[in-house]
Amino acid sequence: MDKEKNVTTNTVMACVDGSQSSPAVCDYAAWASLRLNASLTFLHVLDHSRYPVESNLSGNIGLGSREHLLAELAELDEKRGKLMREQGRHMLEAAVERARTAGVAAATGRQRHGDLVETLAELQGEIRLLVIGREGEEGDSVGGHVGSHLESVVRTLHKPTLVTAGVFRQPRSVMLAFDNGPSTRKGIDMMAASPLFQGLPIHLLMVGADTQEASESVNAAKQMLENSGHQVQACIRTGNVEKVLLGYQEEHDIDMIVMGAYGHSRVRQFFVGSTTTKILTQSRRPLLLLR
Length: 291
Fold this sequence. Notes:
Layout: E1 11-15, H1 22-36, E2 39-46, H2 67-101, E3 107-113, H3 116-123, E4 127-133, H4 148-156, E5 161-164, E6 174-177, H5 182-193, E7 202-207, H6 212-227, E8 232-237, H7 241-252, E9 256-260, H8 266-272, H9 275-282, E10 287-290
Parallel strand pairs: 1-2, 1-4, 2-3, 4-5, 6-7, 6-9, 7-8, 9-10
Antiparallel strand pairs: 5-10
Helix pairs in contact: 1-2, 3-4, 5-6, 7-9
């Protein structure tokens, strides 16, 4: 694949693996790349904890074993590693071709060895937007569970992260889950300035009591978005946060939710749960998470 060169900070980076979510990741990444007029890099990371072998059998061999068994195991390790690298290269080539067919001229592939979270942390200076599937190769979120792998990525990177779910659907509308916190105020600024949402209707939804303070903050955010040329529908609703957000999304057939991610520590999340995780688990459409 293309060598690591011509580094740019205007890059949509998309993580691809052998999971069922990879086609949607490719398509949403291509969509974002075209909207942002940004280059697109597909990243495939070979995790040392799994490759070249799923388990190190050599550690189980006793002192009486013959040396040629160790040699054979080493040879199998090498062959498996080579096969996984080759599979990854084919995967990246297919992703690049899919993006180019969608109209992305500046699409490249990059293969790395190591830990996914550490690799993304190292590369985040290049990233404008990260696109990643909710379900990884091992089915992190199969059965209504969001794995720690995805959570670690979102918590570690201080970049907008688009988490895909289901198959690609051309975004026609977007909803910002607004709580007047730092992340969602940042989201207002981003949505007002970014070409990613240009021309798309925006729903601004706050969940909570309809107080004067809440109304003023929502109206101020609505005004800022309208001043940037957006068509905005603002609303305050009471109730359970996850149920209200997902119910509103279903009611208005909204294609994407934008929300702040993991506003509290892991310790607090352990006791009270996480709105981010619950929305990730239950949503059937992509989420753009802001840190």
